[in-house]
Amino acid sequence: MTAAVTADGQITRDRDEVVDWSRDLPLFRKQTMGCPVIMGSRTRRTLAADLDGRQMIVVNRNTDPAAVLHQLNSEQCFVIGGSRTYARFAPWLTHVYLTYHPLVFGAGVPIFTGLTHSLNLRLEKTIAVDEQQRIYQYQYSVLEP
Ligand SMILES: NC(=O)c1ccc[n+]([C@@H]2O[C@H](COP(=O)([O-])OP(=O)(O)OC[C@H]3O[C@@H](n4cnc5c(N)ncnc54)[C@H](OP(=O)(O)O)[C@@H]3O)[C@@H](O)[C@H]2O)c1
Q: How many structural domains comprise the chain?
């Protein structure tokens, strides 16, 4: 999964917000290009356009995550949000990429909503997204439970 996150762990101020504060869109594009991207119906509604070069898979509350993953014709895919969708796919995540932004919302939507499964992570590497603003993507692998 990949997400842009504030310093207080929010991915958006509210569920209808179009995220316009993220600095990692060029990196997001590069990393996801050619891969299927899985998103929730609400996130789909916030996108102004299709994501070119990527199969877009839009899920809803009735979607079986295991069935979606089973049908993929690709070694790698990205779960791109939002909060409920990250939580629903959490049991299958192998990597968690978080780009922390120097913002505090105080309230909003956390990375995961409705998580039933805790994750143990190991930081594998950090990538500079914006050297001037000191914004980095933290790449974690998910450890076996
Ligand atoms: N910062 C980032 O990197 C980032 C990335 C992606 C998205 N976002 C932001 O995240 C926000 C959307 O996140 P989100 O979590 O609200 O939506 P979401 O995960 O995009 O989509 C909502 C999903 O949850 C389902 N759902 C809705 N109500 C439910 C319920 N009561 N119980 C179970 N499932 C339910 C929906 O199904 P139905 O269609 O059946 O209702 C849909 O599958 C937007 O503001 C978007 O801009 C931020």
A: 1
Nearest-atom number in ligand 1 for the CA of 87 is: 19
pTM (whole model) above 0.85: yes
DSSP summary character for residue 59: E
Give the residue whose CA is nearest to atom 32 of ligand 1.
61
Using one digit for the tens of pLDDT, what is the confidence trace for 55-66?
A: 999 999 999 999
User: Residue 122's domain spans which residues?
Assistant: 2-142
Determine which residue's CA is closest to atom 39 belonging to ligand 1: 60
- Verify whether ligand 1 is closer than 6 Å to residue 122 (CB atom): no
Q: What is the CATH number for 26?
A: 3.40.430.10
Write the pLDDT tens digit of every residue in 1-29. 999 999 999 999 998 888 999 999 999 99
- Residues 120 and 104: their CA atoms lie apart, in Å, by 24
**Residue 145 to residue 141: CA distance in whole angstroms:** 12
